[in-house]
Amino acid sequence: MYKVLLVEDEYYLREELATTVNWEQYGCKVIDSVSSAEEGLVSAAVNRPDIIVTDIKLPGIDGLEFLRRVEFGAAIIITGHHQFQYARDALRIGVSDFILKPIDDEELHKAVRKTVLALSGRNTQGNTDSLDPVYNDNKARHIACARRFIERHYREDVSLLDAAEHLGLSTSYLSRIFQEKTGTGFVTTLTEYRINIAKNLLQDQSLRIEEIAQMCGFRNAGYFSRIFKRHTGTSPSSFRCTLS
């Protein structure tokens, strides 16, 4: 299990962080909950947490300075709206995600899930941990959700980034598990789905190639024809002729 350290000077918020999330569900355990960065430094030295959740604004040493002084696998920072840009800059020092006050439960869960998955992915690449079954289950679920995203949004100008943000995941993680679980990339899967839809639509002789391209999410007929030929070996019009 991943060890979690909570650093938050507001008592009720600290309790909320500890109890709102079902940490065990994510393969985690809260090993300490402290009210200041100074206490956090001591706890981190003793407990060596894998994940740290900390407020930016703390008495004495602020949350970012605290993180600079300790070792951690991943971190989530809590910030107010007026500190939003400050929080974004924190991503540069290895913070995996941030959440705004007042904390929304769903956003908190997304941040925890994203952080754990990012951490587990790094561990897997380094062959330092064996994954808890929950992570393998999460991978399968995320692939299924990504496929549903494709099915619902293939007509739109969508990308790997759009899918990752919709699922609350990092693009690198989603790309990696797609390749791992399907043997192909997200973009290739999206394109192949669009091509299969196009093949069905080409059976309708009343639809122009331009219309089909738009209906399948391609930006224009020329681009559609090039991609279609690349995947099928023939142009859309030639493919249509074979159907008649």
Structure summarized in a few sentences:
The protein has 244 residues and is of the alpha/beta class. The chain is built from twelve helices and five strands. Helix 4 (84-90) links the parallel strand 4 and strand 5.
> Count of helical segments?
12
- CATH topology of the largest domain, which one? Rossmann fold
User: Tell me about the biggest sheet?
Assistant: 5 strands, parallel
**The number of domains:** 2
Give me the Rg, rounded: 23 Å
CATH homologous superfamily annotation of the largest domain:
Response regulator
Strand content: 5-15%
Give an account of the 3D structure.
By secondary structure, the chain is α/β, with parallel strands linked by helices. It has 2 domains: 2-125, Response regulator (Rossmann fold, 3-Layer(aba) Sandwich), CATH 3.40.50.2300; 132-244, Arc Repressor Mutant, subunit A. It is built from 12 helices and 5 strands. The chain has helices spanning 11-20, 37-47, 63-68, 84-90, 105-125, 133-153, 160-167, 171-182, 186-201, 209-215, 221-232, 236-243, and strands spanning 2-7, 28-34, 51-55, 74-79, 97-100. A 5-stranded parallel sheet has the order 2-1-3-4-5, sandwiched between helices. Helix 6 packs across helix 7 (160-167) and helix 6 crosses helix 8 (171-182). The longest helix is centred in the middle third of the chain and has 21 residues, at 105-125. It is elongated, with a radius of gyration of 23 Å. The N and C termini lie far apart (60 Å).
